[in-house]
Amino acid sequence: MKLKITIDEKIYEVDVEASEPEPAPLPMVGPLLHASVGQVPSAGFASSPTGEEAADENKVCRSPLNGIVVGIAAQVGDSIQSGDTLVVLEAMKMETNITAPCDGKIAKIRVAHGASVKAGQIVADFE
After folding, report:
1. Rounded to whole angstroms, how far apart are CA atoms 18 and 107?
2. Domain extents for the chain?
3. Which of 9, 24, 43, 72 has its C-alpha lying 20 to 30 A from 53's C-alpha?
4. Are 104 and 69 contacting, i.e. CB atoms less than 8 angstroms apart?
5. Strand pairing of 10-15 and 116-117?
6. Radius of gyration in angstroms for the set of CA atoms belonging to the chain, rounded to a whole number
């Protein structure tokens, strides 16, 4: 394949060829996460990808992505409403708020500041 590249207002024509064959696609493992932040579909999480025990999906909040905990906005005993920020994760130099999927009271926060979190991992339990 021929390409034209401009560098410092000079045009260069170069030949490019693939040095390795295209890699094979990776197999699908686990459910796809097509949910908004703070809302993870319950189907497929009976056995968590992080090895956690099965939980009542109506009483937990799971992380929709991998990241590092950079903030915890809720504490045990706090009354929260759907959409309230519970945890802030940093992934790829961007911060993402993990929000409460429902109204309730925080029973347990399962993550700590600086901890690594995997997609699907439970970050908080509700009463």
Report:
1. 55
2. 50-127
3. 72
4. no
5. unpaired
6. 21
Mean of all residue pLDDT scores within the chain? 79
Nearest Cα to Cα of residue 107 among 122, 90, 126: 126
Cα four-point dihedral sign 58, 59, 62, 64: positive
The model's pTM = 0.58
Q: How far apart are CA 78 and CA 100, in angstroms?
A: 12
Q: For 16-63, write each residue's pLDDT tens digit.
A: 776 666 666 656 554 444 444 444 444 444 444 444 556 788 889 999
CB 45 within 8 A of CB 119: no
Architecture per CATH, domain 50-127, reads as: Beta Barrel (2.40)
Per-residue pLDDT at 97: 94
